[in-house]
Each structure stands twice: as C-alpha cells, then as structure tokens.
Amino acid sequence: RSPIASLVTFYKKALGVRQYHVASVLCQRAKVAMSHFEPNEYIHYDLLEKNINIVRKRLNRPLTLSEKIVYGHLDDPAGQEIERGKSYLRLRPDRVAMQDATAQMAMLQFISSGLPKVAVPSTIHCDHLIEAQLGGEKDLRRAKDINQEVYNFLATAGAKYGVGFWKPGSGIIHQIILENYAYPGVLLIGTDSHTPNGGGLGGICIGVGGADAVDVMAGIPWELKCPKVIGVKLTGSLSGWTSPKDVILKVAGILTVKGGTGAIVEYHGPGVDSISCTGEEGGQAAWPLPCAGPHGSPVGSRSMATICNMGAEIGATTSVFPYNQRMKKYLSKTGRADIANLADEFKDHLVPDPGCHYDQLIEVNLSELKPHINGPFTPDLAHPVAEVGKVAEKEGWPLDIRVGLIGSCTNSSYEDMGRSAAVAKQALAHGLKCKSQFTITPGSEQIRATIERDGYAQILRDLGGIVLANACGPCIGQWDRKDIKKGEKNTIVTSYNRNFTGRNDANPETHAFVTSPEIVTALAIAGTLKFNPETDYLTGTDGKKFKLEAPDADELPKAEFDPGQDTYQHPPKDSSGQHVDVSPTSQRLQLLEPFDKWDGKDLEDLQILIKVKGKCTTDHISAAGPWLKFRGHLDNISNNLLIGAINIENGKANSVRNAVTQEFGPVPDTARYYKKHGIRWVVIGDENYGEGSSREHAALEPRHLGARAIITKSFARIHETNLKKQGLLPLTFADPADYNKIHPVDKLTIQGLKDFTPGKPLKCIIKHPNGTQETILLNHTFNETQIEWFRAGSALNRMKELQQ
C-alpha cells in the first residue's frame, strides 16, 4: 500500500471526511501509470472526479456508473448538452487500441492526416491474420511469412507515430487489453466491436471504426451520441453447469440483436455485489463481492468480461460492471496493484449512485438460470441446453457435432481453460475422448504459457484437442477447414460470440451454436446436440455409465502468471529516422486518396445497386476470412462488396441486375461498372443494417465504388457512424413500410441537401420505370459536425480543412 494511500485512509478515519474529498487533493502527488508499458502516461481519477461533480451538480440527480465514466471524460462538462439518446457528447478517451485487420486502414488514414505523433496512448495488436490450419506454432510461422509485408507496415508505422506494437502470437486484442490496459473508470475506444470486453474491469470500452480512432489519435474530441442506460439487475447465484456466458446468452435472447442499440448495458444488483465468496484470500473483503459462480465460486473479472464482450451481439454501445474486490484481485495478479489501490480511493466514482435511473430495467435471477446455447445463424436465438436437441430435430438441424471449438476473445481466459479441463479430466478418467473434432484457442501468450505450465493444455490435448495459435482464428473465419465440403450441412458448437451464416468457415450450411467452454467440451465428448450434461449419462470404455459433474476451476492461477515470450515492441523515443514504406505495386497495402467533396447539389437519379432482403451484417457487406489479407488495400478488398447480401429481386447472393445492360452479375462488378460510367448509386436495406463487426471497410468500399447513400429501416450504431465518417448518407425510412415502395429497377432523387440541417428529414422521389413517381421522407441522425463531414467528402477531409 502506498504512503499516499495510507495517508488518505488515515485522514478519512480521523476526520470522518468522505474518501474522495481527501483523495482528490492527494492523488495529484500519487501518480500511477495507466500501464507499465507507458510509465509517463497517468491515470487521472482527479479529473474524472472533478467532471463528475460538475455534471452531478448540473443534472441534480444520482448518476449511473456508465454516466459517471462517460460524463467524467467530457471535453466541456460545464457546457455540454446532456440528454440521453439525443445529444452528441464530445469526449476525451484515455487510449486507443487497434487490431491488425482494422489498424491497417486506421494507420493509413492517420498517415494521410499529416500529423507527426499520436496524441493519446495507442496500441496495435496482431491477432486477425493468423489462419487456423495445423496447430499453434506451425500456423504462426506460416502467418508471419504470408503477412510479412503487413506486419512490417504496422510495426514501422507504430514506431514512426508512437504506437505500441504487439507482435503476431501475442494474443487476442481484448485479452491483452484486459491483462495490461483496462482499469476501472477508463474510457477506451478500440477498432473492434468486442472492445466492450474491458467492461469486465469496470471501464467504458467502446468499439469504433478506424476513422473514429484517427480522431482520438489526432487529439480531436470524439463524438458519441449520449447513450441510454439499460440496467440488468442480477439476483441469486450461479450454480452447477450454469456459467457467466449463460447470463449474456439469456440477455441476448431477451433484447435481440438490436435491443441494446444506442445504450450502455450496466450490470448491478445483489447478484453482483452482495454475495460473499468462498476461498477469498486475505480475510474479510473490503466491500461486498460479486456473484457466486459454479459451486459458490465468485464471478471474477474475466467472467464479467465475457458478459460485457457479448454485449456487442445485442447492439449495445458497451457494457460495464461496477468496481469490486474481484477486479482488485485481478489487477493485483496481473501486476497492477498500484492501480487497484488508487481505484480503492476513488471507488465511490466507480460504482453507480444509489437511486440512479435506468431507461430500461431487466432482472435475471441467477439461481433460476439454466445453461444456454444460442443459434444457429444468429446469436440471439436462445435455447436451454436441455431443449436444443428437441428443437434441432424439429427444425431439421444436424444433430451430430462435427467440431467443438473453445477460445475466442469471449472465452479464452485461464478460468475458461480450467473449467474445460475439469470436464475433460472426467471423460479421460473413464477412457473417453472427444467424438467431435476439438480445438482450443488461448487468449494470449500469457494464458498459453500458464495453461501449459499448469497442465491444462495437455489435458485438453489428451482429450483429442488441437491447441491453436494465440489469435482469433476460426471465430472470425480464419479457419482452413478440411473435414467438410462447402455446401455440406453440418453443426459446430463454439464458445465464440457470433454465428452468422458462413462466418466461421465460409460455408452457408454450417449451423454454428454458441455456448460456454465447458458445455462445448461436454458436447464435443458426446458428439451430439441431444446430450444434456445436467441429466444425461455417458458410457466409459469399461461399459459403465457415468455422469459428468459440473466443473469447477480457479479464476486465477495459484502461482503467478507465466508471461511467456516477450512479444511487445515499444515505440522509440526518437522516430525521426523511421520510414514507413508502401509499395505502389503492393497487393496488400494502398495509400489512400481523398474522397470527392459534395458538389452542392441534390442527388439526382441514383441507381439502386441492390435492395437487400433480411439480415445484412458487416460480414455480408465486407466478408472476412480469406478477404482479411486485403484490409490494407481499399481497391482490392472492394471486390467483396456485399457479396453475402441477399438480393430481394432474385433471392440470390452476389447477383444483381445491371440497370444499363440488364444482365445479372456480381455486386462488385456491377458497382465498378456504374463507377466507370459515372452512375451514382444507393443501397436499400432492412432492419439493423450493418450489425456485427466494427469494420469500416463496410463503409469505405461502397464509398470507393461510387455509393452516395444507404437507405434502411434502421442501422447498427457503429456502421451508421462509419458511413458518416466516409461522407456517405445513412438514411432511414420515416415510415418503415416505405421500404416496400422501392423496387430494384427504380431510380431515386434525394432532395433537401442544400438545406441539410440536424433533425430535418430529407425528401426522396422514387421514379418508377413506367414514369410514375412517389415521394417519401427519409430521416437522419446527423449533427452539425457530421454534416460538415458530408460536405467535405469525409471526416478526414474535414480534419485537413481545419488544419489548413
């Protein structure tokens, strides 16, 4: 405990002064670094406290935890308009994190800005470009060879502009952030939709597109629509086979894939902070602990991170848990006891105020919660594990499980691996191995090294598992799958977060289900969706029947974590001699050219490239998997534009009518034809268009190939912002039924752009081939700043205008 912290406690007890009043004075001398990788970048709880007090006085009401952290990072807390769901906030995030697939375009945009260094601590994490094929070491060597040009670009760009670089093999970005960078009260933005993972350590961590990251790295206040707050009150306690993953699977079933849009999900209640823990070290806890896990064990920081991580699947801006003793323990175990001690002094600001108001309240009784499995094809189709077999038989889903996969940024911690190993040991004791293929993805090099040391990895290998590289792998489609042919109907079960059509293996007939790692392990042993580990028996090699017991495992290793290999590259103090080269003939990287400015006129006679039928995620708009290698080359990756979207005209993917030739052809080819002939075009979409990944390529590609607007019933938050950043018009039908008035053969004119103002609808004239016309209204969410992006051609163009 630091002398300053002890002095704060002394004054608190002696004078009866509320803890944070004294801390605010003394903390200025108790400088604590945000990370040991950046010893001169400090946590500013004093500023957080100051801003919270200003806002609380203005609003004159109790604040949620989400509000405290978000409003605590306001650029102008005294003057900022604050209205949940309406006003746009100007924020000052503490740091930026980028994974390698999105970092390429983010760094290319930052280079285009002309700025010499990033203004806030920033990191690049190499986790997306490693394909699962043979196993960890071999796959990593192959990836380093194939992606050498990209890795070199990211490493040298990081060195040149002051960005830390985590080399391939380091681990998944979100696990690295949790181990090194997340802390209670942090405001972190990351160029990946599962950045909310950091909410498991009490931070507000938000997924964004690369252009948003560039704003923050450039020192520009970051804009976010003031989020609503959904409260999830947890009561009771977890037991048996029920895991923290089941909490978010249940919530996803309640809210659906768009129910959290525009909101932060804040977990609270006695299930979080009023249940004592078994086996707590060091005597009585300083304050109530989070909810009990299997067999009364506590839900720790990583388990809370699992819940926050999958909040992306309900469209939430982010999710967060209040600071508690389990977070303190995790921070200490990962070498950040100084941060934990500082957080103790400010903990009143790291939990919600009593009596705070939520825009929506959901209650989940953990004692009644059963193990869940969600899918296929969407992460909000929730089933109790006990019932999924019957549902599968009724729906005609394949019952035999071809592959079980554990890991991903959602479930790849030490505790996750321990629970799976506990299940595996029981099967091995009866002579059994997996009937299904089985893969294991460690979340980080630290996790890999520690589970190797503690024997978990070998137990899972003995069960028949293959330990893959510390990377995203099959979760994002980086899987060289050999056991089936494309188009073959099959079932896989994963502990991942998404299960959209074709996401894991590019096979549209793969029925992917998501559940907890221990349920995946049990189902892989049984080999069928009809197996319920709570009630069903297995038969050992001796012919005797036995039932798997609910697994238990340590949240943290008894010994210290084994850090494994050093995989971090510090940016040099002097980068003046550092060069970043992009070859003009490269097929992987391409310097960006500025998009054209708005010409000051209404958009006349826009051609409809495609009218999309049903779900259209960013995977449909810009596929991952083999396309990841082109994430740094805008023209090449544009060849995957909307190839997964279903055309309402013919019910097919990647087949649209060319309005000039009247021939059907691939979507990208048709878009290129229109661009070549000066024909501007639009896309018509359905509900929650652009859900899923944060990838801004889904906005860059249509802009690059000539789109001017995307018109839908509704948008996912990140994608809508990404479209605005690139100078496109994301518009929604004032009357959703107007979606049915537009046909792929129509032309559209969008009027009102000369008087483009916040809150004022635009007029759209639908011109039918028979000469008739209809007029409808289109809504938008643009504010004044975003309108300037549109007029300038992009947010980056506008930034350059302001610099000049």
Automatic annotation (TrEMBL):
Per the record, GO CC terms? Answer: cytosol; mitochondrial matrix
Which SUPFAM superfamilies does the entry link to?
Aconitase iron-sulfur domain, LeuD/IlvD-like
InterPro entries in the record: Acnase/IPM_dHydase_lsu_aba_1/3, Acoase/IPM_deHydtase_lsu_aba, Aconitase/3IPM_dehydase_swvl, Aconitase/IPM_isomerase, Aconitase_4Fe-4S_BS, Aconitase_4Fe-4S_dom, Aconitase_dom2, AconitaseA/IPMdHydase_ssu_swvl
The residue ranges flagged as biased composition, category Polar residues, are 575-584
Q: Which reaction does it catalyse?
A: citrate = D-threo-isocitrate
Q: Which UniProt keywords apply?
A: 4Fe-4S, Iron, Iron-sulfur, Lyase, Metal-binding, Mitochondrion, Transit peptide
* Residue spans of biased composition, Basic and acidic residues class: 552-561
Q: What sequence ranges are listed for the domain Aconitase A/isopropylmalate dehydratase small subunit swivel?
A: 607-735
The listed locations are: Mitochondrion
**Pfam families for this protein:** Aconitase, Aconitase_C
Pathway(s) served? Carbohydrate metabolism; tricarboxylic acid cycle; isocitrate from oxaloacetate: step 2/2
Q: Which GO terms describe its molecular function?
A: 4 iron, 4 sulfur cluster binding; aconitate hydratase activity; iron ion binding
Cofactor field? [4Fe-4S] cluster
Q: Which GO terms describe its biological process?
A: citrate metabolic process; tricarboxylic acid cycle
Known function: Catalyzes the isomerization of citrate to isocitrate via cis-aconitate.
Q: What PANTHER family does the entry give?
A: ACONITATE HYDRATASE B, ACONITATE HYDRATASE, MITOCHONDRIAL
Which family is it part of? Belongs to the aconitase/IPM isomerase family.
What is the protein's given name?
Aconitate hydratase, mitochondrial
* Protein species of origin: Rhinopithecus roxellana (Golden snub-nosed monkey)
Q: Which gene encodes it?
A: ACO2
